[in-house]
Amino acid sequence: MSARPSGTMLPPIEVSPSLSADAILARARVPAPGRQPLIAIGASTGGTEALRVVLSALEAGSPAIVISQHMPEMFTRSFAERLDSLCRIRVKEAEAGEPVQAGVAYVAPGHSHLLLRATPAGGYTVQLDRGSPVNRHRPSVDVMFRSVANVAGRQALGVILTGMGRDGAEGLLEMREAGAYTLAQDEKSCVVFGMPREAILRGAAHEVLPLSEIAPRLTALCRQRIPVRTAP
């Protein structure tokens, strides 16, 4: 990945499909401190099952969750609907401009990067970006993690799950540097250890855990670190 862009304030994101990967990553940097609690999860190969394990173990009152799973666009809606039928939280495919609410997990559609925009009230809205792939992926975990680092900062928790390649490793490090607490799935429980391994090598993960321990740890961290707001 190229050098990080500066953290200057940027105008509202209005994306053209011709934007470069560097431009997409730059537009994920929209600093806004004091945001509501948030969990961000990235995954690739093996991630569909890993996400089922994590999300189905979370409580209904969990903070809002944003998810980037490498998956073709024709499958992300049905994937979200299947998870929704198995979980106590609500799971849905993310829609552009919708408000982010506690107790809901938002799955990036397969045609777009998922970013967040801060609202004056301390919340977020979903932004969908059809620009160029980043790390050969759209949605890219790095794009989402960078956006979360900048709009949620220390109010966020980051998780990188099983997957091939390095997408998400740099973004998880940015989340950690912004004050977020970060977790990576361990090698033994991964289908492919590529993405978590790259994050661990960069020092991006505070903890490395088996898949079965990630949801309980998230629940404990939410109780320790951040006041959970319930959806209206």
Automatic annotation (TrEMBL):
E.C. numbers: 3.1.1.61
One Pfam family it belongs to: CheB_methylest
Signal sequence range: none
Keyword annotations of the record: Chemotaxis, Hydrolase
Organism: Crenobacter intestini
Protein name as it appears in the record: protein-glutamate methylesterase
Active site: S44, H70, D167
Span of domain CheB-type methylesterase: 31-220
Enzyme kind, highest EC tier: hydrolase
Keyword DNA damage among record annotations: no
Example of a GO cellular component annotation carried by this entry: cytoplasm
SUPFAM superfamilies, per database record: Methylesterase CheB, C-terminal domain
PANTHER family noted in UniProt: PROTEIN-GLUTAMATE METHYLESTERASE/PROTEIN-GLUTAMINE GLUTAMINASE, PROTEIN-GLUTAMATE METHYLESTERASE_PROTEIN-GLUTAMINE GLUTAMINASE
Catalytic reactions on record: [protein]-L-glutamate 5-O-methyl ester + H2O = L-glutamyl-[protein] + methanol + H(+)
InterPro entries to which the protein is assigned, alphabetical: CheB_C (IPR035909), Sig_transdc_resp-reg_Me-estase (IPR000673)
GO BP terms: chemotaxis
